[in-house]
Design brief:
Length: 356
């Protein structure tokens, strides 16, 4: 969702995907969640997934997240799942916005949507955290580490999410799913991506774990407290499911292996000077919090996630070509897919040559 809340980091523009605000106003009144006064709607700029809006109903401020219009890939943009998982996590130690209402009827504003509370705070777009002291940067990253470890510790059955995904075989199913998504996209094929798709099933780790996984946990998908290094809400749960926690964590840590121009990366940062923990220290803290001695096959999970984000960005490019991407810079973002696939294939070759 990247920017669905937060005063200092909001990027609000007139809706790129407008809808019938009168129909929304009627829905709010019927659901008993409307404020007093006129309805105002602006769209958050940024993100490549479900269009997201700031909705002011008089004195009440909410966030609306909807499926994009147009032809979509199967199972994509599942706003109903986002609503369900955040509502379930409200009773846990994982910070999420309060859910207000879900509308699965596309007749209201054109596509299904949900409403949640607007959380005041900071969305930090640059993972290098410019303007902070080294101690402040370290504290913000420690909080990110704490929250993803807390998510993976949630008893998914106890919070009513026992059927939120299949148990076991997660990584192989994800390889098959995102390979299909990539194959079905309309953008040009990527040679290194094709090689990684062949490589991954041959190197699949044997271990199986199951936890609630976010699927897109990164620094600009959380809202920090306005002044403290404390996360108030984790956003953008579209890709969440029951899955392998190490896959989820490796997606988050992928930033340490990619450069800023590739995908919100940190690889070209001076960690010691900035006060940001390097990859080894960050992984060690997660292991401590999740009672692990080490992570076997760590590079596999990183390569897998580079494959997955390549497939996602390839989909962004495909949607841009169809004219229904959620952001105006979708073509530029989609072009990054090839660079990430190249990094993944280089890592895979190093494993094959015994260098990793």
């Amino acid at each position: 969702m990247s920017g669905a809340s937060g005063t200092a980091s909001e990027r609000l523009v007139p809706p790129l995907h407008p809808f019938d605000t009168g129909a929304l106003a009627r829905f709010l009144r019927d659901a008993g969640v409307a404020g007093t006064g006129p309805l105002g709607v602006l769209q958050f700029q940024g993100g490549q997934s479900n269009p997201t809006y700031r909705v002011n109903s008089g004195t009440r401020s909410m966030v609306l997240r909807r499926k994009p219009p147009g032809t979509l890939l199967p199972s994509a943009h599942a706003v109903d799942r986002e609503f369900r998982v955040m509502k379930a996590l409200a009773a846990t130690g994982v910070p999420v916005p309060r859910m207000i209402a879900l509308c699965e009827d596309p007749a209201v504003i054109g596509t299904p949507f949900y409403l949640m509370e607007h959380v005041e705070g900071r969305v930090l777009w640059d993972p290098a955290l410019p303007g902070m002291s080294p101690a402040e940067r370290g504290a913000h990253y420690d909080e990110l580490n704490r929250v993803i470890a807390a998510l993976h510790a949630v008893d998914y059955a106890a919070v009513g999410l026992g059927d939120y995904g299949r148990i076991g075989g997660f990584v192989l199913r994800q390889i098959e799913r995102w390979s299909r998504q990539y194959e079905s996209g309309g953008a040009a094929r990527i040679a290194s991506m094709d090689r990684v798709i062949e490589w991954l099933p041959r190197h699949l780790p044997a271990d199986e774990e199951t936890a609630i996984v976010h699927g897109d946990f990164r620094i600009d998908n959380v809202i920090f407290h306005p002044t403290e290094p404390r996360i108030l809400a984790v956003l953008d749960w579209e890709l969440s499911t029951l899955g392998h926690p190490l896959s989820d964590f490796a997606y988050h840590v992928m930033a340490w292996r990619l450069k800023a121009g590739e995908f919100r990366g940190l690889a070209d940062c001076d960690f010691a000077a900035l006060g940001i923990p390097d990859e080894a220290r960050y992984v060690a803290e997660y292991c401590r919090r999740t009672s692990r001695s080490r992570i076997a096959d760590w590079d596999f999970y990183l390569i897998f996630n580079m494959f997955r984000i390549t497939a996602i960005l390839h989909g962004v490019m495909s949607r841009a070509l169809q004219g229904n991407a959620a952001s105006g810079n979708a073509l530029e973002t989609g072009a990054r897919a090839a660079r990430i696939a190249d990094v993944a294939w280089e890592m895979a070759q190093r494993i094959d040559h015994g260098e990793s």
